[in-house]
Amino acid sequence: MTWKPAKTLGFIVGLIFILTLLGIDFFLVRTLFIQEIGLNFYVTALLLVLSVPLLVLWCHWFYGFISLRYYLDRNGLIILGGGYRHVVPMDSIRSIVRGDQVTLAQGFRGVGWPGYLMGRMWLKELGPLITHSTEPLERQLIIITDSVCYGISPKEEERFLEDFPLRQALGPIHKLAEETERSPLMALHVWRDRWFWGLVGLGFVACTALFGLVFSRYGGLPDRIPIRLTVLGEADWISTKDRLFLIPAIGALAFLANGLFGLIVHRFERLAAYLLGICTLLIQSVLWLAILRILLR
To answer: Which of 1, 135, 267, 287 has the maximal Cβ count within 10 Å?
Structure first.
């Protein structure tokens, strides 16, 4: 039987966050069209770039909230939502207690907003607690096993408590393994590779900072500037100053291409993904030298 939690509060709050982010993005896009090219334009564009992955991530969390449900039968309890699936065998469940009967030893870590909690806590004497619920701890049902506890919040709590011992008394037909399953995309190791994301972060900082340098100096440049210099420092290509943006644009394309390719190859060859990140940093270094050579000439 499938049990669903109460979702009204979490839905309203989560939707407000999404609509707020969409409103901010709309405002930033509108502002870009009326701003002159300069440092303010750069700051607005950077805020827009940073807000897009935040919006995507929040929509992912919101989908996990919307799809949250609990399936209980004689074989065990399954907690479903988004890209995860927690399987709790019936014979591993020792007891069920209410959240106001346990003591919190370590605070919540995870994703949450009013009406939704997805993450971990630590309970005194009981150990780790994995919670996927729409209620605070004191209004959750705590599923206690030998290894870990689970916090859930079925809307019809009393009926759930009445139904559980009946199904437990029937005995399992199929033996389940206590495990947490993730979707193929969420299960990729790349999401937990700090070295890879460290290289990506450095590449992003170098790329955006180069754009910032060009935008900050753009207004003070003459209409026509030397874009390419010979070994002796003489200009052999003079063009309009807007061509200067081609140099950081090349860096942005290299960052995106190497980043996406790194995500793909990381699953098969982690070292290759690291080398792509290092290659991005080298390209950014060369582009920085080119820009500085032009601007400081």
So the answer is: 135
pLDDT of residue 106: 84
What's the CA gap between 110 and 159, in Å, rounded?
29
For the stretch 153-181, what's the b/e string if a residue is b when 16 or more beta carbons lie within 10 angstroms of its beta carbon?
bbeebeebeebbeebbeeeeeeebebeee
Give the pLDDT of residue 231.
47
Is 96 in contact with 161 (CB distance < 8 Å)? yes
CA dist 30 to 2, 34, 44, Å?
Answer: 45, 7, 10
pLDDT of residue 236: 56
> For the residues of the chain, what is the DSSP string, one character each?
-EE-B--HHHHHHHHHHHHHHHHHHHHHHHHHHHSPSSHHHHHHHHHHHHHHHHHHHHHHHHHHHHT-EEEEETTEEEEEETTEEEEEEGGGEEEEEEGGGS-EEEEEEEEEETTEEEEEEEETTTEEEEEEESS-GGGSEEEEESS-EEEE-BSSHHHHHHHHHHHHHH--SSPPP-EEEE-TTTT-GGGG-HHHHHHHHHHHHHHHHHHHHHHHHHTTS-SEEEEEE-TTS-EEEEEEGGGGGHHHHHHHHHHHHHHHHHHHHTTT-HHHHHHHHHHHHHHHHHHHHHHHHHHT-
Cα–Cα distances in angstroms (integers) from residue 74 to residues 143, 157, 260, in the given order: 15, 18, 45
pLDDT score recorded for residue 188: 78
164-174 pLDDT, tens digit per residue, is 888 888 888 88
Cα 99 from Cα 121, distance rounded (Å): 12
CA–CA gap between residue 166 and residue 72 (Å, rounded): 11
Task: Supply angle C-alpha 12, 15, 16, rounded to 5.
Answer: 85
User: For residues 277 and 288, is the Cβ–Cβ distance under 8 A?
Assistant: no
